[in-house]
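Student: I would love a firmer grasp of how sequence relates to backbone shape in proteins. I am handing you a single protein, as its sequence and its fold in token form. I am told such tokens are a discrete way to write the fold. I hope you can help me see how the letters and the tokens relate. Take your time, and here it is.
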Amino acid sequence: MLHDPEAFVSISAATAPAFSRDGKTLFYLRGSGLPQVWSLDLGSRAERQLTFHEEKVAFLRRSPLDDRLIYGIDRGGDERQQLLLLEPGNPAPRPLTDNPAVIHDFGAWSQDATRIAYAANERDEGHFDVYVQEIATGERQCVYQGSHLISVSGFRPDGTELTLLHDRGFGDMSLLLLDLESGEARTIGSVANFKSVRWASDGNTLLMLTDLGDSEFLQLCRLDPTSEEIAIVHAANGRDVEAWALAADTNLLATVENDRGYSVLRIGPMDGERPIIDELPRGIVTDLSWSPDGNSLAFVLTTPTDPPSLWIWRDGATEVAWRPEHARLRFADLEPVTWRSSDGKDIPGWFALPQGRQPERGHPAVMWVHGGPVGQSRPNFRPDIQMLLAQGFAVLMPNVRGSSGYGRAYAVADEVERRLDSVADLADGRNWLASHPAIDGERIGIMGQSYGGFMVMSAISEYPDLWRAAVNYYGIADFVTLLAGTGPWRRSHRAAEYGDPERDAALFARISPIHRVDQINVPVLIAHGARDPRVPIGESEQYVTALRERQKQVSYVTFDYAGHGFIRPDHRRRIYRAVAEFFTAHL
């Protein structure tokens, strides 16, 4: 092995920057697996850790008026998030919620910073209601009883109304306006995708990312909630606008576009030309945050060779505010590639070769499949991918049909009866890999997580002769048992994507890989966390039992204190080493 797999565990990352009220400090999340709240003095560059939990801090929101911070943690990845308040001068956080059986999905501060709003599934585990809570007293009130997945977008600036999102599935979201005095909620506009919905400062219109009006791509739009008239503020030709932030005092608008996976950052006047900030390294820009005076923009930038770092734009110039160290490790870049599917579609992906000398017969390769399924592999920093490259494996990361970032039609091209079309895309990608002059076509494996784990097991059962080894992280075995066992709040949302267990029983029997394990003839490594609320561990146990009964070669790794992902440093050490040794042995 060129590098010990454990060397990739401790690489840190920064996310969620927020300026202090005076603009002199950045609050942010930082860590290599269990990020905590940190502060960075922008003058002296002094750093200070502010929280010390043995759990991951999932988000961070500063008060509109001062430097109080709200953040959230769960227990062992169970996603039942609790909200805490960190006040200046007091190192001990104050719990705002304290019911470990309930998910508390933070929504927003009120403009006067006296209240917060969030959604929680306390009344019924399968349905979220909306609560408004006083910060000073902790007194709270249920202001809306919801159905399934409801989230809070924000308070109207005068505090009289809340905007809510009802998410029934991709392309099937409703935007609601809740009157806090009467308790009445009304739907604004029609069904579409909505993201980053926020009130304009005048409180008269809403700004949002949406494909309302049957647009193929997300656009930044302004919506009048009274007349329901909608106007496009910023659209990118053939691209999603995936993030935006408007400076309060200067009217400067920052937008991020998704250019086939790369981010394009633009900054300029709300009603004028917004040039591209093109001096940045090519990668992914996230977490836009304006300073209170509206003159500086903080954001996170990551590339395939740079872990997520804090950057600041001011007066047309950009600089790195904080960058993680990664002693003596060299990382490989990703390049965009495309192959043609057997039915004529162009399938995009990302490809990387290991550094160093190429073996005489070519490199062994691993195809890594993203989850979702409405997700997208992008040119960001992935320690697990770099770990594979450092062991001498080439990597191909496909964005098969069903992936986001390429328009609405592509994102829904794998739904229900078309599910296995995306698996065929994997087979075509494997054949593209096998024909590459730097690849040994006889030594190609496949791995993926969550829905990507389903894709892995489908690939090795639908096309068993194409692969030499497979790794499945917490993948779906049977869509019937998945929908029965997943968190009740997710059940109808997932059924909208996958199908109905009764109506689509024959389809589920055909596409669920558990019914085709007889076809598998390669060694498989399966890993799962016992606290996973999304894909219950019983999905992996089905695979292991069925494979062992048939005397197939299977290794099984479990984590007692892990949810839908292996984030704790000790878990990462264990799984990185297991994957490296598995592929080294079988490829």
